[in-house]
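Annotators were shown the component list below and the corresponding predicted structure, then asked to write short factual statements about the assembly.
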Amino acid sequence: MTTNVIGSPLPRVDGRAKVTGAARYAADFNQGGQAYAVIVGATVGLGRVTGIETAPVEKMPGVAAVITHRNAPRLPYAPHKSYIDPATGERLHVLQDDQVRFYGQPVAIVVADTLDQAERAAAALRISYAAERPLVDPADPKARPVVPEAGKQPDARLPADTARGNADSALAVAPAKVDEIYEIARENHNPMEPHATVAAWNANRLTLWSKSQFVVNEQAEIAAVFGLPPENIQVICPFIGGAFGTSLRTWPHVTLAAVAARQVGRPVKLVLTRKQMFFMTGHRPRTLQRMALGATADGKLTSIVHEGTGETSRYEEFMEALTSVTGFLYSTPNVRTRYRLLPLDIGTPNHMRGPGEASGVFALECAVDELSYKLGIDPIDLRRRNEPAIDEGENKPFSSRSLMKCHDLAAERFGWSRRLPEPRSMRDGRLLVGMGVASASYPAFHAPANARARLLADGTAEIEVAASDMGPGTYTSMTQVAAETLGLPIERVRFSLGRSDYPPAPSHGGSWTMASVGSAIRAACMAVQEEAAKRPRDGRPIEATASAQRDPDVAARFSMHSFGAVFAEVAVDPDVGTIRLRRAVGTYGIGRVVNPRLARSQCIGGMIGGMGMALMERTVLDPRDGRPVNAHMADYLLPVNLDIPQLEAHFVEEIDPHVNALGVKGLGEIALVGMAPAIANAVFHATGKRVRSLPIRIEDVLTV
Amino acid sequence: MLPFTLEKVTSVQAAIAAASSGRRFIAGGTTLIDLMREEVERPEHLVDINTLPLSEIRIEGSDLVIGALARMADVAAHAGVQRLHPLVAESLIEGASPQLRNMASIGGNLLQRVRCPYFRMHDAPCNKRTPNSGCAAIDGLNAGHAILGTSNHCAATHPSDVAVALVALDATMQVRGPRGERSFPVEELFRLPGDTPHLEHTLLPGELILAVRVPGGPFSRRARYLKVRDRASYEFALVSAAAALDIEDGMIRQARLAVGGVGTRPWRLRTVEKALIGRAPDRKIFETAARLALEGARPLSGNHDKLELLPRTIVRALEMTGEAA
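Structure shown to annotators:
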């Protein structure tokens, strides 16, 4: 009795809980007798703490503890790295020494009976520093790029250098060339829900109700920090109010909440302020990229040179897939990529939606657009002329690739044929109108995952995985997979996630949750059915746990990626330079779509993220002390409903028998990738002015 | 936030008495509470004036009288305001998000504090927040700062949009204090920073804003507010302009022009106005006149673009007045 639940546009199973407030987020898990902790951040960007006047603050009303590097427990900080932590370097050891490595780094934590008391005490704490001028500007000549340690090996996941053919000599003799520098500002994730942790000790056991996209790693990380066995740590996070990658790692505030709770012998609640989320919980690194394309006069690419540099901290080498797409998006015999890092006195960056790909594809897709104008070839046609038969970087066939199908569908929906090719040639009244296009790509990852399925006597089923749902609708889509596999109506399936004692799942990022967790749930449901077939019905629950992972042979044979095409229309005021996105169409080939309603919603969200990247988002650091000067939602611009125009998302029919049993490729990241270059290309088409740094602002287009 | 007392007053007299003894008024609280949370503002005693009978909006002849406690949203939605004083309505709508417009009062809007990031950060020097501590913006990040009316001590712009419209329209304000009532032009409410940037306005101790009066005129309806910013929904102005023209027989008889985002106070441009009078309302004339706006402009390291954007904004706002009529 298969029900075809997979593929149905079901509304969110947790929608009602969310809109009625029944859904509980980390900071909602108030514990009896809890105290409140507030982090005090360094007000210098580099140096060391020379004095902390704790005595007057300790006497303030309600204050239970003032914890600094002087009185904090020495924590074991046993080695621990998961794949979401930088492979090279060592995580910040919080309150373990007097060093200040970046502005806002925690230098003290104040615990009090009420939040007000803790905030007041934190504000009153006087700290003196021996300050030095930090290096925070990647353009500063003192900043020296390094070869990322983890990229040095030829088989590295993110190799520092790759080459096929001879890209530089091919570029030198190419009849047509684009060779430009592209820059992208630092962005902060800024989800609606702030980071929050409620920590409670019971003897040597610790429970953390904590915002996390990776509860089993938070468990492992905190166990390592405190030198405890992982089974002593329980992490609980049933709901996440947006994250975009900022909650993949376990940041120092989680450790601080646990330290504070142990120090005061009570549960402690710690919620970061919006401002604090600008310096201690990662960000999309600033990037500088050289992108050079060589082509024949009829638009066949003969060379691509891509040299990208991303900022990182002094203590860890954060790497992202900045140059990964360049080797396979188009056909060309000669490619050279180079990836470097620029260590600065900042907190370590981390993955932000479409990490690496979004930035790298911006450079590639703007350069392809520039080439199309140089050659006088329609940008879609130029891409079609360079459509590869296989992944030429890996020398493997694609498991499926629908890039040109995406372009064709999007072009039709968008009305690309109405575009006049000449820049600055289209107007709406006095406004300049521009249309731009870009390709998008993101890997179809799949990580090993586990799931438990339980059939109850009342005919219902329970599914448990230590997965997360930061908003895409994991609760719903996983319920659909289970319902379809078990042949049960959706109402009879209860899916639970967000507990570290559930069967382990990979991090909720990298667009692999549907593939990985979905496949594990399917396997567990099949296993429990097999078990049920073997056993007499005695009213006792029947349970099975199963795991799933990608067949390594298949993985070795195919190159697996999602592809998409994004079209954008902007209007630019020729007098005052205001740039407004008027509409956009995104089309994606992502394998099977489990829930079209949720998938569309996820795409719209990603496109909005790309709109922010293109036109609004940037965190500005004061070069004198590294402070973010716009760490405030009035000053860090991102699109809100009033700014967001008509956005359309469509999916091309794509059956991929290789990626996994469900045939899904993942969707979260690719929906952001491609939007920024489509908008930048539209701005060029509207104005004739090529802007190669994001975000594009009024000043950039005021004069041509 | 530091602890404070809050008392409600029910009469103007009681409010003035409370303020005379050093208490601070609170109306919508959209600026004050924000700054109190950051401990930039540290009042010990607040007087809640929200129940005072000062929220009336009325049309007297062609004049508009706005009670000091009228909410931005209510003024903007008022039929008489929309009909007779569209510039006021437009500047209010452009001036804040809907949530803020629902809370913020007209009096409070005029007295809002600056948006300079360093003013809002305790650990940065700021002459406005802490006199004689220095100015972090002059040598720091100042892309949003003023090019007109600055001093070596402060270059923060006045953030209000409706104040720009009111200054353009020669609005006056009625205030009452311990020594009685007085009226004066809204323009005179704002001080230049000079070497005392912590002194922002000319109200005397204990004075309470009662109302703002916007005189009607032949230019009131041919009037537009243009706010230039990267994010349309909500952002303080990079540059803004309030423009009103009285045109008869193809000639500009009267002009009113003030700009925001460029001055340390809402900046009236009388020389530009004079250059428009007696001329035909066309783009060439607008462009020539708009260049006069840059007289005395002094850009900082990061805001040279405002020299380009200011005249363009003025020209476009003047053109828009033609589209309004």
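Statements collected:
1. Residues 305-324 of chain B form the longest helix (20 residues).
2. The CA atoms of residues 239 and 309 of chain B lie 7 Å apart.
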